[in-house]
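Give me the fold.
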Amino acid sequence: MHRWKLVLLIGIVCLALAPTFALGGTPTYTLSVTKAGTGSGTVTSTPAGIDCGSTCTASYASGTDVTLTATPAAGSDFTGWSGDCSGSGTCTVAMTAVRNVGAVFDVPKTSVGIYRNGEWYVDLNDNRVWDGPATDGYAVFGGLPGDVPVVGDWDGSGTTKIGIYRQGVWYLDVNGDGVWDEMTEGPVTWGGLPEDIPVVGK
């Protein structure tokens, strides 16, 4: 009796890993996508089939190359693939077997930093230690007496950038390169009374 149970169990496992067959005898394999992390987003495929979102499993003919693209929602970052994909760009999987792919979306953490006489030191890797400009963020932006540092997502890209409020004039590093580009980042005039305190938000 136990021998028959063992044979049955082995048969079930083999069926789970085996391809299905479309009309005409072409084998198909299943691609499954799961999402993880503290954030949110969608994963889509080319050819169509995965739109996860709502449709996270699809079948493809054997030998099909399926390219997956992860798109984070506003306020989230796509931080990488797992399973049969790796890295953080688009991923192409060859459907020569059942494939399982994980996509991780996270809400970015807020880092600490210091503004000191026009110099910005930002703990980008969040270890609460200054690791130098090659690892952490450093920029020279502002520095005149009375300059007030401000930060915000000036271009709506989801990345926080630096700026200076100076007596009613806002100098914002819109492109995030840590440099004042006057031709493309012209100052914004808002406020200017002695008692004004700059605030940002959305």
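The first helix runs from residue 2 to 17.
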